[in-house]
Task: inverse folding
């Protein structure tokens, strides 16, 4: 049986669709018996959907670097 | 006797502005001007204006609040500028390209008063700001890893290369970041 911390990390992998089949099966089994991990998994999925729902935009890294040098030159 | 106000005066720290606030300000600007190029310029102008008027910063508000208030002015100025450019007597009617009705009657193009779409758009904007506030509370490396992977959708390999870490490190970092974010958003946004 995997420890809860391992399960939580796999659960995070699932959010990015990067967990292997074996890992997914392990989680399914663990969650049957562990309420804490079940809640964690639910919340984690909710966080993923909130992030996509919010449609957050970020500046590209190159733009930030440009801004930094511009700011530096003015200080 | 010395009075304890409980408020510590804050100092400005322009070196961290870009890393700490640029995404937050950019998101705010983009939702108001609807154009990422203009939004980027507004954020840049905000930083410059912040530097220029740094002596006016009294240290009462947080740095970010102060910068947002400058950005608000910049957004208003932007709209003033584009409004003064076009002829004042002209009435501009934007034909709705997506309209299914495809008719010339304006009545058919007014907003549906029963629509909840606008509400959810507002709510999503608030949600976006709330998530960004929470991301800002993370340690710098965690915040960067989370943003690159979740919001920019980079592959594990690319993020690892960017941060110079191995995949198992990345998963631990992402897990910690997500746990903190869940706690941070817990009171307001989670329905569970």
Result:
């Amino acid at each position: 049986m995997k420890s809860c911390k391992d399960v939580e990390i796999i659960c995070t992998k699932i959010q990015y669709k990067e967990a292997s089949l074996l890992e997914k099966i392990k989680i399914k089994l663990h969650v049957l018996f562990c309420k804490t991990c079940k809640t964690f998994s639910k919340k984690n999925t909710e966080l993923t959907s909130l992030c996509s729902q919010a449609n957050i935009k970020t500046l590209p890294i190159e733009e930030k670097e440009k801004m930094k040098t511009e700011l530096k030159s003015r200080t | 006797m010395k009075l304890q106000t409980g408020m510590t005066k804050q100092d400005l720290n322009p070196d961290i502005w870009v890393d700490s606030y640029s995404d937050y300000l950019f998101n705010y600007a983009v939702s108001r001007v609807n154009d990422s190029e203009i939004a980027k310029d507004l954020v840049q102008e905000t930083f410059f204006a912040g530097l220029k008027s740094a002596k006016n910063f009294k240290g009462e508000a947080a740095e970010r609040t102060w910068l947002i208030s400058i950005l608000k002015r910049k957004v208003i100025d932007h709209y003033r500028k584009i409004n003064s450019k076009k002829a004042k007597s002209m009435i501009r009617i934007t034909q709705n390209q997506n309209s299914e009705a495809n008719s010339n009657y304006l009545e058919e193009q007014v907003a549906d008063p029963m629509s909840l779409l606008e509400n959810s758009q507002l709510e999503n904007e608030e949600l976006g700001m709330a998530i960004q506030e929470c991301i800002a509370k993370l340690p710098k490396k965690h915040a960067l890893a989370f943003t690159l992977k979740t919001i920019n959708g980079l592959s594990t390999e690319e993020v690892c290369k960017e941060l110079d870490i191995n995949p198992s490190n990345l998963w631990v970092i992402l897990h910690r970041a997500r746990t903190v974010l869940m706690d941070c958003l817990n009171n307001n946004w989670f329905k569970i």
